């Protein structure tokens, strides 16, 4: 519920307290527990979600500190180590793809670049695209979803049609096609910068209807609630109702859908790089490593396993965390 | 019922026109805005200016986008003749464009590749529906048991694994190390067993991902529905549990899944790019990727349009099935 606004919200508050009391919580706890607090307490009890959350945190730290980490380890992601490569087959000479004390995860076939360093740097691309495209989707989705739900009528009809249409589009194909027609230089960016920018925008653009639909539905049902009507009858303006009454109540579903969207975006980025339309070498990304591993899945299987496992762990961690957040914020769940 | 179908059909037609316009907008306006010359990308990277100019004339690339989209639309039904720069190229109906890059009409190439993609998508769909629905329903009914937890862990892993990774893994294990399956693609008219053998791994990997998604959604939907009042009513009036599940709960569970199936199948018709690339299947997805690598715009455009069409048709079929499953839709 929102911050107290004279009587109207005070009317809504006791009903929430009653609910909690019925659920069997002691009176003391009922008093001061906000939704955020309840959610946090539930999340703390969910071991799987917590593990996911911790892995996500570690990944974020690794991504931010990537250059520092590779410096400390003493491996440059772009340095060639051709001495570690069998000149006849092009595969690493050591066992398990050349894993050693120097090269923790082995080296790449042909040029012998250190896989650990490339995985660590690849985390930056994955997380950057995953997060920022979710932000793009959340911004567009929230604004248009609220507009559709709040104003109704033709605004709603138009926005809803666009959302239906976008959801029915063959998205991956469109994203591939769009990313591929984009030029190499624009807006003062070039190379990897442009590709990242385009990927973030395009992935975000195709993601907003998922958030938009939820936000529209929530807004639509809340618009008719008593506390909004009360605020309106007290003379509150549209913008007051929008920002003070509706938006705070939309935070929970938005958080849930954002956490669920990030892993999907990470997978899409990896897929684009896998298909060769994402980030171009020498910048390393997990999808791109997997795509070059296709040619070596028989002779050097470790080269394929490592980026694959990196994607798997990342996406799984986000999914576990996302599921946990959803359950924690679910008002129907047991408190 | 008829009015409902008519409305849906009309909406699909409108959507098709919108899609053609949007696709044209994307492929002709975006590069223009970004300062890329489309005519030269149609010809090749090192094309001489005369050839570029000829293509520009032939394809009418200086015309407004609406005119170009209209010409394209007309070509689908009436065929198209490209003339300019001295020679004439004929593209018979249905003309979905002509690639001057590879000197081929788009449509025949697409029809040649479509069956592979269709077989991939349909075969996988059969598998994922059987296993996804079964796992989801069982989990919902045996909530909290060991089975439920195990199934949901597998499903969560399934949605977190990229298909090109599971694909490569399965190739490395079943085809290379164990030698159980010869994963080479063989055309259906050459040998059925060879074709079937080549499709097994793609089917299973693709189905694994979707089965995981469907199992999660089936479980969630089913659990929600089992908590509804009408299920309690059905039980209270003494119906057998089996009847309650099959006749009452399953029916409502199927509706959202049907919508998903329509979208997924439609998208897979052209979006099986990843699976086709991983297993080197000569389907539509592989073609579009080749086209992207060669900057062969007419093919990209053709595949995107065909796929959108497939999505539209799939959604239309779903709408019809909706009316069959859900009586409320018929009456509305």
TrEMBL record, chain A:
It is found in: Cell membrane. It comes from the Bacteria. InterPro entries: BP-dependent_transpt_permease (IPR050366), MetI-like (IPR000515), MetI-like_sf (IPR035906), OppC_N (IPR025966). The chain crosses the membrane at residues 48-69, 125-150, 162-182, 194-215, 246-266, 302-322. It is a multi-pass membrane protein. Residues 123-322 form the ABC transmembrane type-1 domain. The keyword rRNA processing does not apply. Its main location: membrane. The keyword Transmembrane applies. Keywords: Cell membrane, Membrane, Transmembrane, Transmembrane helix, Transport. Belongs to the binding-protein-dependent transport system permease family. PANTHER family: D,D-DIPEPTIDE TRANSPORT SYSTEM PERMEASE PROTEIN DDPC-RELATED, OLIGOPEPTIDE TRANSPORT SYSTEM PERMEASE PROTEIN APPC. This is ABC transporter permease. The lineage of its organism: Bacteria, Bacillati, Actinomycetota, Actinomycetes, Kitasatosporales.
From TrEMBL, chain B:
Residues 114-322 form the ABC transmembrane type-1 domain. The keyword Disulfide bond does not apply. CDD domains: TM_PBP2. The chain crosses the membrane at residues 9-30, 116-138, 150-174, 194-215, 257-279, 299-325. InterPro entries: BPD_transp_1_N, MetI-like, MetI-like_sf. It is found in: Cell membrane. Keywords: Cell membrane, Membrane, Transmembrane, Transmembrane helix, Transport. The keyword DNA-binding does not apply. It is a multi-pass membrane protein. PANTHER family: INNER MEMBRANE ABC TRANSPORTER, OLIGOPEPTIDE TRANSPORT SYSTEM PERMEASE PROTEIN APPB. Belongs to the binding-protein-dependent transport system permease family. This is ABC transporter permease.
